[in-house]
């Protein structure tokens, strides 16, 4: 979960200023957490409290209203009576990583991932993106190899994960759909050698950088056993006290390592 938040913060400055290189400063002075972080932590709190996901997202989103929410989601966030709006946006996938850390079998992970998505993103592609991301986190956390994760996700969800990043990068553009984001985020993880390398891969595609890095970062956190200590320090400094408290409580509750062992 910390890995997803760190990815969001790192990618925040490149969301609308895309780059096509892995050679960049990981944390710039203007990096900040966005809606990806707010909603990820809302999902985590809902899991801990057994709370309705929509209620948790609305409460936390309204506490942090100026964090680059999409237009349709912002309306949903502010209107208590608003229902799901058939979205297949990548917001369904960027907020789901806590599910992969908290639940203990594939069936529960897929069920809860769908529940987090369908309160707003109830299009089949939105649900699919959330489920694929959460399942990748779950598999990574429980010791699956890159090849096994790749095979499992391809077989269950039909994503094409054979494409190398070097072939994706030149023509890839800003894409806010699950189907145009989740496979690329997964490939960014699959080609990585470390947590940092995974996030650099995601940002270097030149797309929706904070969300790509958030999705990739959550999977990489699970696979590599946390984030580097210095990344954790940066995340703690960037979060509000309230968001940090919930994050640390979730990680403690579900035995999620914050920092990877050196």
State the gist of this model.
With 262 residues, this protein is mainly α. The protein has 15 helices and no strands.
Q: Which ranges are low-confidence, i.e. pLDDT below 50, for 5 or more consecutive residues?
A: none
Shape: globular
Tell me, rounded to a whole number, the average pLDDT. Answer: 96
Q: Helical residue percent?
A: 55-70%
Which radius of gyration do the C-alpha atoms yield?
Answer: 16 Å
User: What class would the helix/strand composition place it in?
Assistant: mainly alpha
The name of the CATH superfamily reads: ADP-ribosylation/Crystallin J1
- Most strands sheet: none
First and last CA, distance: 19 Å
Q: How many structural domains in the coordinates?
A: 1
What is the fold-level CATH name, i.e. the topology? ADP-ribosylglycohydrolase fold
User: What pattern of helices and strands is seen along the backbone?
Assistant: HHHHHHHHHHHHHHH
Number of helices: 15
Strand content: under 5%
Q: Layout of helices and strands, plus pairs?
A:
Layout lengths: L1 H10 L23 H15 L3 H11 L7 H8 L12 H4 L2 H6 L3 H13 L5 H18 L4 H12 L7 H4 L13 H9 L4 H9 L5 H16 L4 H10 L2 H13 L9
Helix pairs in contact: 1-13, 1-14, 2-3, 2-15, 7-8, 8-9, 8-13, 11-12, 11-13, 12-13
């Amino acid at each position: 979960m910390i890995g997803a938040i760190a990815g969001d913060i790192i990618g925040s400055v490149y969301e609308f200023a895309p780059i096509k290189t892995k050679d960049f400063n990981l944390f710039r002075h203007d990096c900040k957490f966005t809606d990806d972080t707010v909603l990820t932590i809302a999902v985590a709190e809902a899991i801990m409290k057994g709370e309705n996901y929509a209620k948790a997202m609305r409460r936390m989103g309204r506490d942090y209203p100026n964090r680059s929410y999409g237009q349709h989601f912002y309306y949903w966030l502010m209107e208590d009576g608003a229902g799901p709006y058939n979205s297949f946006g990548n917001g369904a996938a960027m907020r789901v990583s806590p599910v992969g850390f908290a639940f203990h079998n594939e069936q529960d992970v897929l069920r809860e991932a769908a529940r987090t998505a369908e309160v707003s993103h109830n299009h089949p592609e939105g649900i699919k993106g959330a489920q694929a991301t959460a399942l990748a986190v779950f598999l990574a956390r429980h010791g699956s190899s890159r090849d096994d994760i790749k095979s499992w996700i391809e077989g269950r969800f039909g994503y094409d994960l054979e494409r190398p990043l070097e072939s994706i990068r030149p023509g890839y553009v800003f894409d806010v759909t699950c189907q145009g984001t989740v496979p690329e985020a997964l490939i960014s993880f699959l080609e990585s050698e470390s947590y940092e390398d995974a996030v650099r891969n995601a940002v270097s595609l030149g797309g929706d950088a904070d969300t790509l890095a958030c999705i990739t970062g959550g999977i990489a956190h699970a696979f590599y056993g946390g984030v580097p200590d210095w990344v954790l320090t940066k995340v703690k400094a960037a979060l509000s006290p309230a968001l940090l408290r919930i994050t640390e409580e979730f990680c403690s509750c579900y035995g999620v390592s914050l920092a990877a062992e050196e």
